[in-house]
Structures are given as C-alpha cells and as structure tokens.
Amino acid sequence: MFASQQRHNRMSVDAYMLNEAQSEFRHEYIDGEVYMRSGSQPNHVSIVSNIGALLHSQIARRGCHTATSDQLVKTKDGSFFYPDAVAMCGERAKTRDPVPALTNFALVIEVMSRTTGSYDRADKFERYRTTPTLIDYLLIDQNRIYAELHHRGEDSVWTLREYRSLEDAIPLQSISAELPLSEVYLNVFPAALSPHPYPYE
Fold first, then answer.
1. Distance (Å, whole) CA 81 – CA 97
2. CB 70 within 8 A of CB 63
C-alpha cells in the first residue's frame, strides 16, 4: 500500500499522533511529513484478507500476533507506517502514544501494484530494515502471481527469493509459518492464469 502524495504541512511526532487519534483516515509519517494512505483495489483487499486468515490460523495459538492494515508500526529511523500485514512472536512492544505503534515486528508484508513496486522495494524497505527485529519482508504482487521475500540472515545480510507459481509456498522463518501462493491468491485470479516470468512486463 502506498501513501498518497497529498500531504499536510511538516509537523512533529506529537502533533502527528494527536491528529491520527482524531482522524477517520490513516496517515503515515516520514521525515516530518504526513501522508494520507490511498484506497485499495479489489485484488489488494482480497489478498490482504487471505494473508490475514492464513497467518492467524498458523500462529495465533503459539503466542504470536498478526494484524492487517490497521496496526501502526514505528521503525527505528522514526517513520510510522501501516503495513498491509505485520506479525511477531512473544510480547508486543508498543509506543505510549495516542495511537500505540508496534516496534518489535518480525514480519512485514506489503501488497504492491505497478505504481508502488519501486517504492516498496527501495525507500520503504530501507526504512523498515532499520528495525533490528525485522527478519522477513515480503512483497506480494496484486496484479499477477509473483512474490519476493527479503530475509535477514544471522549475519544480518539480506537475501532475496522470488516466487512465481501457485505451487510455491513461501517460508517465513521469522514466525515459523508459510504462505502457499495458491491460498494467498485464492479467488483473486482465474485458476487458469499462468505465472508471469517477470512481474512488471
């Protein structure tokens, strides 16, 4: 999900939090600028719903937690985002703000479109990975069968794996779970749709 380029004047974190607690819309905070989140396409909504159900069914009884879209997170560099999905195991650490933000997330999932893919891969990922607890950063394409998993190893080096088949299951070591693409894309595309070898051609 991408934050709209329409933004408010620069403001402090305290002012952002007071505004966010009172607003009917969600906003993200980056370098003192406040951006309103844009609306979601039907494919995006379906994919996020599928992911939320898959994660909850696998981890909820193991002392782990997951949320979709409504959970604010704070990165180590001081940015605030609403990921499409977020998860972690153990006790949740949150800020003491009017809108509490999760700070010890282990998994972040963003559903990307043709217009948000570059931002999700670059600037947004750069900010997310300043948070040391983040282990898995998963990007799911809303327009075709494609996903890429960025995983932080024990040596803190990030590796990338791509998935293009409905037969693939994405391993999420951060929460000891997996996401079968056949379930992620359930009722999103016709069953006959073939995986595309390159995500944005």
1. 14
2. no
Reference 138, options 127, 126, 151; nearest CA is 151
Distance CA 58, CA 35 (A): 33
- Mean pLDDT of all residues in 179-198: 74
Full-model pTM:
0.90
Token look-up 């999103």 returns 188
| Beta-carbon count within 10 A of 182 CB | 14
Q: Specify the CATH number for 39-184; select among 3.90.1150.10, 3.40.50.2300, 3.30.70.260, 3.90.1570.10.
A: 3.90.1570.10
Interval 90-132: pLDDT, tens: 999 999 999 999 999 999 999 999 888 999 999 999 999 999 9
Distance CA 79, CA 65 (A): 21
Using CA atoms, how far apart are residues 197 and 139, in angstroms rounded to an integer?
A: 16
- Compute and round to an integer the Cα radius of gyration of the chain: 16
The percent of residues in the chain predicted with pLDDT above 70, rounded, is 90
Q: Please report where in the chains the tokens 């002012």 appear, as a residue.
A: 15
